[in-house]
């Protein structure tokens, strides 16, 4: 959503996508902080730190649009989603 809104130069859509991005990362942080999440300590710590960073950048971005910050947020989301898909694919191969 962020990338599409930026490509369309739609400030309202960018701000809406940033709000959704914030909700996503708040959820990731809540999951990472849950004592029953099953994550390794290092992964949990990295996700919490990353969610705090993304949250801060998202709030800053809502106050004034900056392409380099949007690039950073988009790249983080892409890398995390690629890592999750890789994990799902590995799990599927092990199960099948």
In words, what does this structure look like?
One of its GO terms (biological process) is bacterial-type flagellum organization. This is Flagellar protein FlaF. The chain has one domain. It contains 4 helices and no strands. The protein has helices at 2-7, 11-33, 41-63, 67-95.
Q: Gist?
A:
The protein is an all-alpha fold. The protein has four helices and no strands.
Shape: globular
Q: Could you state the order of secondary-structure elements as H and E?
A: HHHH
Helix content: over 70%
* SS field, number of helical segments: 4
Distance between the termini: 33 Å
Main beta sheet: strand number and arrangement? none
State Rg: 15 Å
Give me the secondary-structure category.
Answer: mainly alpha
- Name the beta content range: under 5%
How many β-strands, per DSSP?
A: 0
Tally of individual domains = 1
Write the layout of secondary structure elements.
Blueprint: H1 2-7, H2 11-33, H3 41-63, H4 67-95
Question: Which terms summarize this structure?
Answer:
globular; 96 residues; mainly alpha; 4 helices
């Amino acid at each position: 959503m962020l990338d599409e809104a930026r490509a369309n130069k739609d400030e309202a859509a960018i701000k809406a996508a940033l709000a959704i991005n914030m909700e996503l990362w708040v959820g990731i942080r809540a999951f990472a902080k849950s004592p029953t999440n099953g994550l390794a300590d290092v992964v949990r710590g990295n996700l919490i730190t990353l969610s705090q960073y993304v949250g801060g950048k998202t709030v800053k971005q809502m106050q004034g649009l900056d392409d380099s910050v949007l690039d950073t947020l988009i790249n983080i989301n892409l890398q995390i989603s690629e890592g999750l898909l890789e994990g799902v694919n590995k799990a599927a191969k092990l199960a099948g």
